């Protein structure tokens, strides 16, 4: 939430900002949360009219006004071109320049304010920077090729045991959604846990300039986004923008088991704390026991003392998630009781979830996204489950030159962890061939060209007691398979 006067001041270009004095009854008005999808508008929201690949948010302003938005950031030129029917909106509205706050005295308090700006996205980012500078939370930035959202959730669960914490919702990690999260800061927040993603070099540095993190966590470097950045080295350089942006009095928390991440210790002015299995890791795990779908137990050594911890996180690979959260808790001065409590309650937004179908089938739903590393980790989870283990694997996107090799790695891993492989989509043949070459019997490998054919096949083959892993990149929408099987 942001006060209207701060919003009107913050959206202005910094070099030409003019003072804002909001008259009654608008003074003190709080606006938020920030949304960019008109379908998510609720009374009091701030809508940001963005131009997308397929449409433009200005087209939906009549609906935004009708749904009760308190304000919207708009381009007057685009507004005139794309929303001519706004005059017939079901609720009063007023187009206003940020410097025209005095005119609000004549605007009914129930009206939706359309705030005219040069560029809605840049105005949102300027407002976020201004709002961020009004508060003094410890900001934790998290990046990496895989595991950002899970790490963010568990870090927030740990630090919130002792400190009032704001966290990114869902996977809000872009130049649009991170500023939206920053506008949720209040004076009550002691910590903000923010996920930072990237599509190109320079983006994490830009996000860090917006958020000004004190603590940075880098989980790993892998081939995700290889198609855009061209090489693993370029991806590592992009991720290193977070450590490079930290202050000298801050902390850089690095995965000691990933050589490219560990090397970032030389690229940050901040103090460094490492985690992992490596003997030289500062926060070191020495033993992990998996209880299948019921979580893991791990022994952690820090400064010579051992700590036995339990978490409902599924799969041994989540030892890294837990370690990153432990490290964050330690640099913030949390005691081990609080850390253990946080690990037992890792939040509700973890992407891998276990659901039961009406026919008695257990579904491991990991459909949000996929890369070779995360898919092989999910297959290892499947290997620890009872019943017939069926891996339903879709295409992994944005791997560039590593596309074929990545799908071969996954196919080979499926042969070692699953009883059946149902390969779906354009790379199904590659995964199937690798599984066969690794020893999976031909009658246990199926190729489906699309999700619909996979649903048809699975409805014929599955039976009560089976366990299915369903995973693929976000763009191939494997969640439709989960929904069909649940029904």
Automatic annotation (TrEMBL):
Major localization class: cytoplasm
Domain Mur ligase central: from-to ranges: 142-328
GO BP annotations, alphabetical order: cell division; cell wall organization; peptidoglycan biosynthetic process; regulation of cell shape
Catalytic activity annotation: D-alanyl-D-alanine + UDP-N-acetyl-alpha-D-muramoyl-L-alanyl-gamma-D-glutamyl-meso-2,6-diaminopimelate + ATP = UDP-N-acetyl-alpha-D-muramoyl-L-alanyl-gamma-D-glutamyl-meso-2,6-diaminopimeloyl-D-alanyl-D-alanine + ADP + phosphate + H(+)
Pfam families in the cross-refs: Mur_ligase (PF01225), Mur_ligase_C (PF02875), Mur_ligase_M (PF08245)
GO molecular function: ATP binding; UDP-N-acetylmuramoyl-tripeptide-D-alanyl-D-alanine ligase activity; UDP-N-acetylmuramoylalanyl-D-glutamyl-2,6-diaminopimelate-D-alanyl-D-alanine ligase activity
Function: Involved in cell wall formation. Catalyzes the final step in the synthesis of UDP-N-acetylmuramoyl-pentapeptide, the precursor of murein.
Record-given protein name: UDP-N-acetylmuramoyl-tripeptide--D-alanyl-D-alanine ligase
Organism for this UniProt entry: Chloroflexus islandicus
């Amino acid at each position: 939430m942001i006060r209207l006067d701060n919003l009107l001041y913050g959206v202005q270009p910094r070099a030409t900002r003019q003072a804002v004095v909001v008259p009654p009854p608008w003074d003190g008005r709080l606006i938020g949360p920030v949304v960019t999808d008109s379908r998510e508008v609720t009374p009091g929201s701030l809508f940001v009219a963005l131009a997308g690949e397929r449409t433009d948010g200005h087209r939906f302003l009549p609906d935004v006004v009708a749904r009760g938005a308190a304000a919207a950031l708009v381009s007057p030129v685009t507004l005139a071109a794309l929303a001519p029917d706004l005059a017939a909106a079901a609720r009063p509205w007023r187009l206003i320049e940020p410097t025209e706050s005095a005119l609000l005295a004549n605007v009914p308090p129930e009206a939706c304010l359309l705030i005219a700006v040069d560029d809605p996205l840049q105005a949102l980012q300027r407002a976020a920077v201004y709002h961020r500078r009004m508060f003094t939370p410890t900001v934790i930035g998290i990046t990496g090729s895989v595991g950002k959202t899970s790490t963010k959730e568990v870090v927030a669960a740990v630090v919130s045991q002792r400190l009032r914490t704001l966290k990114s919702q869902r996977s809000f990690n872009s130049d649009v959604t991170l500023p939206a999260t920053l506008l949720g800061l209040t004076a009550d927040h002691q910590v903000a846990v923010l996920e930072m993603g990237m599509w190109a070099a320079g983006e994490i540095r830009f996000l860090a300039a917006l958020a000004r993190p004190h603590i940075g966590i880098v989980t790993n470097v892998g081939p995700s986004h290889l198609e855009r950045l061209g090489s693993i080295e370029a991806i590592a350089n992009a991720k290193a923008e977070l450590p490079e942006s930290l202050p000298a009095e801050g902390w850089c928390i690095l995965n000691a088991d990933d050589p490219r991440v560990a090397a970032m210790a030389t690229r940050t002015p901040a103090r460094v704390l490492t985690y992992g299995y490596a003997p030289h890791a500062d926060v070191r795990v020495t033993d992990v026991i998996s209880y299948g779908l019921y979580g893991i137990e791990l022994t952690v050594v820090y400064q010579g003392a051992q700590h036995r911890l339990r978490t409902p996180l599924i799969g041994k690979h989540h030892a890294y998630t837990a370690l990153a959260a432990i490290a964050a808790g330690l640099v913030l001065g949390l005691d081990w009781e609080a850390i253990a409590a946080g690990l037992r309650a890792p939040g509700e937004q973890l992407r891998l979830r276990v659901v039961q179908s009406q026919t008695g089938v257990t579904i491991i739903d990991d459909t949000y996204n996929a890369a070779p590393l995360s898919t092989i980790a999910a297959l290892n989870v499947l290997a620890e489950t009872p019943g017939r283990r069926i891996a339903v694997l879709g295409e992994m996107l944005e791997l560039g030159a590593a596309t074929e090799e990545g799908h071969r790695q996954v196919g080979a891993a499926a042969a070692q962890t699953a009883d059946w492989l149902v390969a779906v989509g354009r790379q199904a043949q590659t995964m199937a061939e690798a599984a066969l070459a690794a020893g999976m019997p031909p009658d246990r490998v199926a190729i489906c060209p699309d999700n619909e054919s996979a649903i048809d096949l699975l409805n014929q083959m599955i039976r009560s007691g089976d366990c299915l892993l369903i995973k693929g990149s976000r763009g191939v929408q494997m969640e439709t398979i989960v929904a069909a099987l649940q029904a």
